[in-house]
Structure formats: structure tokens, C-alpha cells
Amino acid sequence: xxxxxxxxxxxxxxxxxxxxxxxxxxxxxxxxxxxxxxxxxxxxxxxxxxxxxxxxxxxxxxxxxxxxxxxxxxxxxxxxxxxxxxxxxxxxxxxxxxxxxxxxxxxxxxxxxxxxxxxxxxxxxxxxxxxxxxxxxxxxxxxxxxxxxxxxxxxxxxxxxxxxxxxxxxxxxxxxxxxxxxxxxxxxxxxxxxxxxxxxxxxxxxxxxxxxxxxxxxxxxxxxxxxxxxxxxxxxxxxxxxxxxxxxxxxxxxxxxxxxxxxxxxxxxxxxxxxxxxxxxxxxxxxxxxxxxxxxxxxxxxxxxxxxxxxxxxxxxxxxxxxxxxxxxxxxxxxxxxxxxxxxxxxxxxxxxxxxxxxxxxxxxxxxxxxxxxxxxxxxxxxxxxxxxxxxxxxxxxxxx
Length: 401
Description:
- By secondary structure, the chain is of the alpha+beta class.
- Helix content is 37%, strand content 27%.
- The protein has helices at residues 13-24, 49-56, 61-67, 106-117, 168-172, 236-239, 242-252, 299-320, 324-355, 359-374, 376-386, 389-397, and strands at 6-9, 29-33, 46-47, 69-71, 73-78, 84-88, 101-103, 123-127, 130-136, 141-147, 150-156, 158-161, 177-191, 205-209, 215-219, 224-230, 263-274, 278-279, 282-284, 290-291.
- The strands form four sheets. Strands 6-5-14-15-16-13-17-20 form an eight-stranded mixed sheet.
- The longest helix is centred in the C-terminal third of the chain and has 32 residues, at 324-355.
């Protein structure tokens, strides 16, 4: 007899990773995704070492490495002077099988995970199914959704709400999503042109400090992604125009003939954490539970960490008889604490550092970063934190209530 079914809202990284773990452990899963297909837009693009270690257990990491770009270092630069502090990740040798950042688009993970799920007899992924409500009782969870043929319901022993920042699961359960929105908007442009040709000693992950206009450069296998802040009231059409983006890119690295722009997007950035990560038999994961600015690449990675933690606990509940309340409470305590105390704080500190306007503070920050990069003990501590190794360790150290 198979275990009871787990329902999963959302076919993003968190939902699909959780589905793989559960189905391979003998737990039937049904995944419901509002979109008609998996998106291939440019969202997250950095995989940290512990995430790759987790995904390796599912047979996914080496496939992603083959489709991505290994970044052995990351750096903090001063835009005006070009001076930089570079953090070499080789110091993580022995702590992880992947002592680097992998620059690889998020959609490649979801594509590979979905392909593997298609081979799992206990897994079903349904597209075009938009969640409309959640009802729970002592025996299970009922998920209501609008499918291709109209309103439907599904019944399961538990529900994972991994349906993104605007989570219908979270809203249906009345869970608050506290935090703030940054005043500026952020624009991202992607180009195949190589910034390393113009900027000496440029790492594939580079944060450039500037009092007027900081920027971030991220390289993937085929493209460089450029992130720049713009005003809160910036006009969308103007900001995404060729003229505006060419001006900004030329300001970073002048180039004869201009830049080919492959993708462009404008969005607002939030720092928010769900009031609680579980209600009854439902638990939140990924962006449904926490969102933060992308400086540090911790959002998608944290969502995968959520999924692995939660799915393993549900396996224990549904195949070994562990107490569901105890397991879900422990999950919520572990993952909410790390989102609040670590991920939110670290990403916000990254934002403050590159946007600092005081010249003395900016100089002091860069000097300290260069000292960290040159001191083995400090370098290891810094890289462990930036690579989320400490975040995983701290999360797992949270004991059950």
C-alpha cells in the first residue's frame, strides 16, 4: 500500500525538488502549476555549494554544471576607481563537493527536475491549474483550483505551498507577509557582450559600489546580466528602451557599436517573511514563505533548502509514522529563523554596502574586504557565510520544540 498523497502548489524549484524527494521515497505527489508550461525567463542564476550538494543527491547537480558556468570567485568593486576585493572560493575545499558558485539559470533546474518527475510513477504535474482555496481538517487537506476544464478539487494528507511570492495558498490561509519594499525599482538587461574585455580582473559575480548608481554584473554561460537601480517613479517604457539601456551599459563599459540586448526586465524588490510557515497540514516553502533582494543569490537557494528540509520530514511522517505536527513545527522553526536572522539580514547588508554614499565608509568597507580576502581565516568565514554553508548549519542546529 502506498503512502498518502502530498499536494504541491507551484512547479518552481521548491515545488519540483520537494516532489522528487517525496515520490522517490514512495510518497505519491500531485503538483499544480497555474502557468501553462515551465517558464524559461531569466530569474535566479546562482547556485551555492550546499544547494549543489543537496541537488547532487537527486542526480541533478552535475547536469546543471554541464549547462552552466563555474564561478571560482566573486568580488566587490569600487565603480569609480576599479579597485576590488576578490573572494576565492577554493577555501571551501573539503567542506563541499562544489567549492564554487555555479552560474546557471533557474529554468534549467526546473526543466531537469520536471523531466525526472515524468519518469516517476508516483508523481503527477498538472499545468494550467490555478489555486483558488485551501480547506483543512484533522484527516487531510482539500486544494481547490481552476483547471483547464473548470473548478476542481484535490485531496491529500498534506499540502506544500510553493506557489511564489503572490502565493494563493498563503493568502487563502490568511498568513501575513510582513516586511518592506525598496523605494527604487531595479532593471536587469542581459547581453552576450563580454564585460571582462573592458573591466580588468572581472569576476563572473561582481558587485560594484557607487554612491549614485551601483550595479551588479553576473555572468552565465551565454550572457552577462546587468542589474542597475532606477527611480521609484521611473517610466517603464523609457527604462526598458534601447536608448536608456545602451546609455547605462556604455556607462559601465564603453563599447563601439553598442550592446546587443537579449533580455530586459524592470521590477520592484521586497524583503518579506511569512508570519508563520505552517498552518495545520499545510507548510510554505520558497518565495511563498520568504522573498528578498537578489544581492547574494540567496532566494532560490533558500527555497531549495526549504524543499529538501520539508520533503524529508514529510517522508518521515507518511512512511515512518512520525508526528506531523511535531515535524511541521520543527520545519517552520528551522526555516523561518534562518530567513529572518540570516538571509534577510545578509542580503540587506549587501544592498547597503554597494549603495553607501559616504566616501569614508565606502573606502573603509573596501579596505576591510581586501583584508578579509587576504587573510585565510577571515576569508573562510566570509565565504562560508556568503555561500550559505553557515545558513544551512544554523538551520539544522535549531532543535525541535
